[in-house]
Amino acid sequence: MENTLTLLQESLDAAFKPKSIAIIGASNGARLGGTEMRLLLESGYDGQIYPVNPKEEIIQGHKSYASIRDIPHEVDRASVIVPAKVVPQVIKECAEKGVKVVQIYSAGFSEMGGDGERLEQEMVTTAREHNMRIIGPNCIGTYCPSSGLNFTKGASTISGNIAFVSQSGGIAFDMVSRGHITGIHFNKIISVGNCIDLDHADYLEYLADDEETEIIGFYIESVKNGKRFIDALKKAASKKKVVILKGGRTATGSQSVASHTGNVAGDYQVWEALFDQTGAISVKSIDKMLTVLLSLQKISPIESGKVAIVGNGGGATVLATDYCEEVNLELAELSNLSATSLDQLGVADGGRNTNPIDMPANQLAAEEGRLFGSVMKILAEDSEVGYILFHFNLVPIMNYMDLESIVQKMITELESIDRTKTNLVAVLRYNGEPEVEKIRYKAMKLLESQEIPTFKAIEEGLAGISVIANQSLKGGR
Amino acid sequence: MENTLTLLQESLDAAFKPKSIAIIGASNGARLGGTEMRLLLESGYDGQIYPVNPKEEIIQGHKSYASIRDIPHEVDRASVIVPAKVVPQVIKECAEKGVKVVQIYSAGFSEMGGDGERLEQEMVTTAREHNMRIIGPNCIGTYCPSSGLNFTKGASTISGNIAFVSQSGGIAFDMVSRGHITGIHFNKIISVGNCIDLDHADYLEYLADDEETEIIGFYIESVKNGKRFIDALKKAASKKKVVILKGGRTATGSQSVASHTGNVAGDYQVWEALFDQTGAISVKSIDKMLTVLLSLQKISPIESGKVAIVGNGGGATVLATDYCEEVNLELAELSNLSATSLDQLGVADGGRNTNPIDMPANQLAAEEGRLFGSVMKILAEDSEVGYILFHFNLVPIMNYMDLESIVQKMITELESIDRTKTNLVAVLRYNGEPEVEKIRYKAMKLLESQEIPTFKAIEEGLAGISVIANQSLKGGR
Fold first, then answer.
1. Domain boundary residue among A106, A121, A138?
2. What's the gap in Å between the CA of A361 and the closest CA on chain B?
3. Phi, psi of B190 (to 5 degrees)
4. Do A26 and A168 fall within a single domain?
5. InterPro entries in the record, alphabetically (chains A, B) (predicted)?
6. How many CB atoms are closer than 10 A to CB B70?
7. Are B125 and B181 found together in one domain?
């Protein structure tokens, strides 16, 4: 067991932090082999790169090798981007070369039926004989900002405490792309494909011991060895937060899994029991996955788990309080001192408890945002308040003044708030107009620089707080 | 009864299609009285405008009157935007002048406690004596594109088959602003405020007979006369589609209603029973309201209510099929002819049923979008398929080619599809990056010009189809 784990660690270290990479199928062109190579160069990977392509002499400034056997140095990791029919031969060569881990990007194996499964088995046998591990096939690669691995342009270069494992390349891509904009920072994202060798249990085992990782996100459709997976999930969830999006929950979805990865999805009731038993958090959509990851990364549990809400829109405020009850959040009952102070500022009514506080656009914009700042400070100093959700409906504010400048001023007001006892959560509501979206985006980045997470809708922000507050009530889970 | 309805029709016609308007509290400034006047001029209102403000001689190019009594013409409608303490006197003058309906924008009455309720009662008594009706107080105005009434810049000028009644100014505003971007067209939106005279039952009665209106949206927090409301809702819902967002569903939300409008929200179970009994569609958030209104306006029921799904992202496709089952939608089983044709195009696997179809970004972009067009045509011609949801995850497509141009080409391919037997629904997934958002916005407008509704997430699009498909199954409900 100790030995297996060491081999696992060694091979996944080689996958995420390789000292040298061979890109088998690299090219100068625009297709995947060319793009992978380009991304590696652009993302600042500082290990050795060995392109392999018998048809080229130089690829993107690097000497190209006809075969991996011709590389006169050690190769830690190989990325295989060649037609399916060539892959088994390439795998054999990698294994003989002493490569620690290969990630097979190519599709066209068991998920396509036919001969695919037999070919997969042969490759695994070859790899095992040489202590080489296989990721994939049928995947889109690895993202690891600290070592310069990437599978798309424009991804974040900042490493965070979240690792994400995805049985779908598209969802791995969504995490890199949407995560970056949303302000979620990952340390690793891996597209695991058909899992012919390394499978979900292996990734969980590895990440359970990974020092960079506190939160593990998972998109999963099917597992081959249920018992091993359950053990690995129990272990991982006892040490880290694990969030799982299970594809193929329903009968129809389960059929759809078969054509996606060639596997059987399993009965969702069994999965639900497993989530309950291990404390893994289950989500049902990509949007909810992003909401939960952002919350786990940016909101910390506060002992007094109650919420104050402030922002523009009376109707939105009423709906927010409804939603609080639905997600099991309690509104803070403000102290008399807070109520009096709010009353003096003119945003409360005669000293009665006014949480949630409805501040119309003209009040938010008043005194260059300082009125809003004062309200936030009063709430943050109230010991009853654990979390403050503040929401701006951006479009009505535009009617009163220059939206970009006032939003920046309001956000700057938050700098002086003591964040040790209160968590701040922002909601920027907007209408989808490109001009407003541009301002929202800038505001989000400004909030991100203050470590304040931003959500698109009040319900989303409250759901995020609820994940944290209700966990802390249950003692860390 | 006949008389009451006639008076009601007359006064609400005067509210929505006034031949002349007095703006009491108009100004040259930037605050509400100035803005209302400016919007009226800019939105193309072609009736008579009479600004009333004793401190000015000319307001925005129009002669200003010291009092409504000084206007030497008939006044259909008055908009009252003056401090609360002056409102009762103004109402008295309006009533004596023979105004048909006033909308009181000013806040500071029963929702603030104190003397407010008594003042409201006095105003109602005065109005009733003169057959004048009151909308409000505490509201933000009226939107009616066909007559040039508006409460914000940049609203749509196109009239549609939806009327919206809102007990929250902010939510009325959201409907105008977000509806416009989303491609939802309203014929009337009214902010009804505290409903001291005209109340929800009146608006429902009026809209039940309104020829422009087929769909009625409603944000409601509380009603004063439950019996009358129930009767009006039954009548309206028997003739039109009614969609209700109820604020103050929960105990906490209900308290919050009290501070928003000064009323009691009522037990939500009673409301739920009422929705069941009348067939009104109930939603729980602003986002869902927009989803349902867009669907009711843009998707028509098709007898074969089954769905085909096509787009990029294998994981997203699996999750989409899960979601279908959750919202009670059936995936269409494609005919052998369709399956064979798809197979020949290279997007199906050996002729088996491949719905949903996972077309990776490079396939969507292939042949300048014509491959996608061919797939859509095959699906549209399959008699089993009632609705086609097509989804583009925009960011991965950018990796292959110029996103803006390819998306436009793909959308243009849809022009030749026979829409009599198949409904098309678009989902444009994106990451929130301003550059991508700009392209998404243009694509949405292009889709809108083809009467194809666009949703942000696959779940949203399927929820929209489900509203229509499951209604048609239940025979029109």
1. A138
2. 10
3. -130, 135
4. no
5. Acyl-CoA_Synth/Transferase, CoA-bd, NAD(P)-bd_dom_sf, Succ_CoA_lig_flav_dom, Succinyl-CoA_synth-like
6. 14
7. no
Last-in-domain residue among B109, B138, B167: B138
Q: What Rg, from alpha-carbon coordinates, does chain A have? A: 25
Name every chain A residue with its beta carbon within 8 A of the beta carbon of B182. Answer: 432
Domain shared by B181 and B78, yes or no = no
DSSP secondary structure string for all residues of B306-323: EEEEEES-HHHHHHHHHH
B369, with CB counted inside 10 A (0-12, 13-18, 19+), is buried
Q: How many CB atoms lie within 10 A of CB B418?
A: 9
Return the CATH number at A369. Answer: 3.40.50.261
CATH code, domain carrying A108: 3.40.50.720
Q: Mark whether B95 and B55 lie in a shared domain.
A: yes
* Paired tokens of B206: 């009026």
Is B251 in Cβ contact with A174 (below 8 Å)?
no
Once rounded to an integer, what is the mean pLDDT over residues A86-103? 97
Q: What is the pLDDT of residue A411?
A: 96
A434–B434: do the CB atoms touch at under 8 Å? yes
Task: Identify whether residues A162 and A198 lie together within a single domain.
Answer: yes
The one-letter code for the residue type at A383 is S
Kindly indicate the confidence band of residue B475, based on its pLDDT and cuts at 50, 70 and 90.
Answer: very low
Which of the 8 DSSP states describes residue B113?
-
Same domain, A147 and A38: no
| Domain total of chain A | 3
pLDDT digits (tens, 9 = 90+) for A318-329: 999 999 999 999
Substitution target in B140, B318, B358, B438 with the highest count of A β-carbons within 10 Å is B318
Lowest mean pLDDT, pick from A46-50, A113-117, A377-381: A113-117
Q: Are residues A129 and A180 in the same domain?
A: no
Q: In angstroms, rounded to a whole number, what is the distance separating the alpha carbons of residues A460 and A323?
A: 10
With a cut of 0.85, is the ipTM above it? yes
Over residues B156-197, the pLDDT tens digits come to 999 999 999 999 999 999 999 999 999 999 999 999 999 999
Task: Note whether A325 contacts B250, CB cutoff 8 Å.
Answer: yes
Q: Name chain A contacts of B174, Cβ cutoff 8 Å.
A: 313, 316, 393, 429, 431
Q: What is the pLDDT of residue B265?
A: 61
In 3-state terms, what secondary structure has residue A74?
coil
